[in-house]
Amino acid sequence: MSGTTGSRASGPWRSESSDSEYEHLTPLFVKLAAIEADDPRRVPLRDQLVTGHLPLAEHIATRFSHRGVPREDLVQVATVGLINAVDRFEPDRGSDFLSFAVPTIMGEVRRHFRDASWSMRVPRRLKELNLAISAASGELAQRLGRAPTPSEIAQHLDLSQEDVYEGLEAGNAYHSVSLDEALSADSDSDPLADTLGEEDAALEGVENHESLRPMIEQLPERERQILTLRFFMNMTQTQIAERVGISQMHVSRLLARTLQRLREGLMSEPAGHDVD
Amino acid sequence: MSEFLSGTEADTGTLGERDPDGIELRLAARLEHLPIIRSVAANLAIRADFDLDSIADLKLAVDEACSTLITRAADGATLSCRFLVRPNEIQFGAIVLSTSDQEPSRESFGWRVLSTLTDHADTWVEDGISPDGKGPVAHIELIKRKIAGG
After folding, report:
1. Residue B101 with chain A: CB contacts under 8 Å
2. Complex ipTM, two decimals?
């Protein structure tokens, strides 16, 4: 866990101003610690603490940007780290929240770099190409109201089509982003409860829904949301990306992994309600 | 349906050898080969200038279809996949010698995934000749159409 109370990391998030920026939140941790784990009154307090400290997560994400992972993905990961820090922080231990949260968030971001690393040696040029394409496709999608084609991206970036093909194919060498461990630790608050009704109704018509439902419920929140939006509400990946606030490529990787996980889950089910 | 994909009883073994533009992959029906088929699918869709959503959809759909066939494949069977790129669509067909003469369910979540991701999805089992000999051959075919550009 964190170092001693006195040791202060340097960096933009530890400046005088940012310390006082979060000072008003400190009493909330004491309040939160006093409430039982299953008490619904925790939810608004926890939300307030997470929201209040968001600039901290953003600062850390910015620190790690320009290293081959889109900033928006880093902000998401840093926010997961922040949520974990809020959940695990014990104010009576004597250290202040920032000394605890900064290493927790940085650890999460570092783990992301490790998990989201390129699975083979992809030349730097291709990584950068892939990133540029990801950013351009976000912009173009906004303008066009749909996902762009490789030739539209080539035109937009003033690159040859062959370059864009290469950059897109390089994306296939990218490991799926592993946020599982981090997100599955988060079990209480459920801002997605509103999509659950849709999911339930849609699942009714699907065989195996008794075994599928708990598997879907166990998915990390974001994966479940993306799955629901794609397969029960029929949104495109580009629409989902905009709604959830991550890149289309990230949505694509998360969906691929979620489907694989569900397939594996269903396969390990004892046979029974299937074909025979 | 195009002859390329469904073919006749006689040519199920070769998945419609009539069309010279088709691209065929034959591999052991094992899940660890999925990345190969997936990347061929993505590669073809990228080069056909499909939009990024459709490229990703096709990739996921091919993955799902092949997983479905692999899980029903007879021991040691070969999975045969064939792609055909048309000006406005990509057709995909796959067959495997199956352990069961029952076709993959259309009520499953997997089928919901396939039908959401593609413009056409079909599956059936027929007695035929696969690369692994005679028996029930399970088929899945998919069509993904271009929505933009082209």
Report:
1. none
2. 0.84
